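As agreed, record minuted below.
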Amino acid sequence: MEERGAAMTTAVRDDSALEVRIAPTSARLDLKTYTQILGEVRLSLEEVDRTALPVRSPRLKWAIADMKMDRDVKITLVPAVVPPKRSLQSIAAPLHGFVEGVDMLAEAPKIPPYFSERTVARVGHIGKHIGSGGIEQVAVTSLNGDRHTAVVDADTVDNASRAVLPAKSAFSSVTGTLDVLSHSRGSSPRALIRDPRTRHAVRVVAHSDHSELLRKAWGRRVIASGVLQRNSEGQPVSLQMTDLEVLPDYRAPMDPADILGINPRATGDLSTAEYLKQVRSA
């Protein structure tokens, strides 16, 4: 069994990691606070991963690779298991997405790309320990490339709260890929729709009789209609769904990068600037 498990993973670069730095206000960090912060960070990484990458992508699991305790507590999280179908570039997606999202929330009450309402709330939960909870500051750093750092402080918590606060409601629709189905006994079925335009996920709450329809539409492009709640920035936050329609499979337009350099002699002996000048003057 061990050999089979080894075949299911790929090597991870040393810089495919997230550093979480917790600055306590006293010499001793409360254990419950420590575990709650790490738990919210882990779940945030998993949620960003699901929103950033296609529905059927194999998912990462996270582990503690290193921990240092001095004035601050520093924890390094790395992928514990990397499925063979995940590229090194895709491993960086949840790391960069999470850190850049926290950085965006530090500046404005907007739902960042690859975040959902729940992920924004998790950032607020991380920051709730600041001050009276015995924490001065929490910082997260993506160790990929330029080591981007974002700080969770009082302003971040305030913006996170405002980003998911409904400011207006109206009958509308959301189009995107249906993902993350959840239906526990006694509650309404829920899902997320990943909007390719805004790149963040909208929470969908449906009626119980929509359960089978949601299940069959999982992973498909859909248009969901109902009462849509938006924040003060006009971003969709959640939808009380009344109708769901599965759309034809979408074929994205060709990426210009795919044809870049396909005919390097198209301009003859002219430079690109000279060729364009000649075409525009014709």
Q: What stands out?
A: The radius of gyration is 22 Å.
